[in-house]
Amino acid sequence: MAEAKTDVLIIGAGPAGLMLANWLSKTGVSARIIDRRPTKITVGHADGFQCRTIEVFQSFGIAHRVIAEGNELTEVVFYNPDDNGNLVRTARIPDTEPGTSRFRHVVLSQARVERFLLDNMKINNGLIVERAVEPQSLSIDNAVIDCLDAYPVTVIVRHLPQDNVSEDEAAITGGPESGLYRSNMFADDAEDAIPQNRQQAGQTETIRAKYVVGCDGARSWTRKQIGYELEGENSSAYWGVMDARILTNFPDIRLKVAIHSASSGSILIIPRERDLVRFYIQMGTIEPGQQIDRHALTHTSIIEKAKAIMAPYTLECPEIEWWSVYVIGQRLCKQVSLCDRVFIAGDAFHTHSPKAGQGMNVSMMDSYNLGWKLSAVIKGVADRCLLDTYRSERVEVAQQLIDFDRKFSGLFSGKPAVAEQAGISVKDFRNLWLKSGKWTSGTAIQYAPSLLVAASSAEKELLAANIHIGSHFESQIVVCIADAHPVHLGDRLISDGRWRLILFAGKLTQQAQRSRYEKLCAELVSTRSPIKQYHVGQDVDSFIEVLTVVSSERSAIDMTEYPDITRPACGPHGYRKYNTIFADEVSYHDGGGQAYQGYGVDAEGPGAAVLIRPDQHVADILPFDACVSRLSAFFTPFIRQVCQ
Ligand code: FAD
Predict the structure, then answer these.
(1) Would you call 228 helix, strand, or coil by DSSP?
(2) How many domains does one find in the chain?
(3) Model pTM above 0.80
(4) Cα–ligand 1 centroid distance for 360 (angstroms)
């Protein structure tokens, strides 16, 4: 039997697996990613990308592709029955509250976003998905579990025969006989739609890995191997979902619409890319052990239900790109790793209803949380204790989202009376939607204090009142000192595994403040500074990159007068970076000038340093005079000294 070694074996190449593969390929960690499907999906599945997910895509350099192909959502309208039972438009609200994020919700087929992630992995380090490969057994050698260089997890995989038909594909699409789901394929997906030419078909292989991550969906094989189960709701709702180009006299078909009809149920309508429209309709619920009758549920029954809910508006669906009926409950597995060697991520440890558009987004955010940590441990930068924060951070998030989803989904369940029974009047629906904006945009996540998140304090709140430790760092427009370009500060936080220290340096035209800033910069390159202690090779910014934002005028101080660490020499020829120092002022064309106010930092004050994790979550807020000592205290428990 063939044998191979890899640092990380990812099982499952859905959104969670591909997000992890992106991190590992970007940070240069050796990985393999297998999926039992013979081909990539090409249409359908999930379609809603939250603002926070787009921010993460931006950090990998692929947000522009998602935005260019997708449809950005702008407004949500609500229809409810009037006193006579006739549907009337009852409210209009923005899809996301202005100011939530620099990005908006984008809807686009999951298949396209998988395309962009796949392309990125290939560009990063040539990583590709090995398809039609299924794991058969998993074992762990406990004797070497704590040994950093060991490969304690052994997975035997089987390269499936060429004609294997994936069970998932058949289950999720309603079966190949529908014949609908392979239409409208994009040219750049053509290669992936053909099963790979696999010389190993039919053979088995032993893969020894340092870490295994099961991103293999709700029926996760990996989860079963490590003996865990999803727990939660006993009954599950089943949903009819359809992507179609339609004929209708409904006036709001290009908006996101929630309709509660008087007696025919509810529908969620999403205006998609390429003039498609997605319909979500809850068709019913099933009890444990019960199976849905897939033959009775066809695209015709979905359309009939949609017509009844939307009446008296008309609906014809001459072009259906994809449809499906799928069952989903709110379930959670609170254990997500075995010995911090085998992990599960995404639907493998939590499932949600589709109403709040959480599933795919949260799944990707799981592996986004795990990826940089695995990479830091494998590269010897961080201790293995870092990995436990994956459990503490993501299980908490999954639980919160399931609680939120349960409440939110009561509103969609069939007749208005059902929502009323859940204690939420349909009249309050709009208000709850508005209040839920932070959750549905993915920006509500705030990790609790831990090894990686310092506790908040009155002192820190005074330094930066609107920056919340544990939350992701929100973006403001600043102007680059060197080239006068307006820059979203969030765009500087690219996903490359580095930490960032943003120095809000204040008014450097005041001599006392300039001295304070220069003193800090000198300390940041002293031997007791984590920047110096933990950088790798000749680039001093390889572990922590320092960014500066001043409240003095951009033209007041030339960039060459800033301390070296703020625009460090990098690479073999010592080129200096230009895009590291910014001013909080109005740009010529694209706004700006509100960063200090937005972050709640005193523009005339003593300055504040904000430490940001590689996944853009704020780790700590530090005063200039204690910055280096507190940085040291923060990193010492989990960083292994790599540079003298
Ligand atoms: P999956 O997407 O299920 O991927 C798992 C992968 O693992 C698959 O490629 C599978 O082939 C592979 N695999 C499984 N078992 C094995 C095995 N034994 N060996 C090898 N490979 C294996 N979420 C949203 O956020 N927004 C939405 O709008 C939304 N709409 C949805 C609409 C539909 C119709 C459906 C079905 C789901 C929707 N979801 C939505 C949910 C979303 O699709 C999932 O939450 C998301 O895909 C989970 O990602 P994942 O990577 O964890 O798992």
Answers:
(1) coil
(2) 2
(3) yes
(4) 7
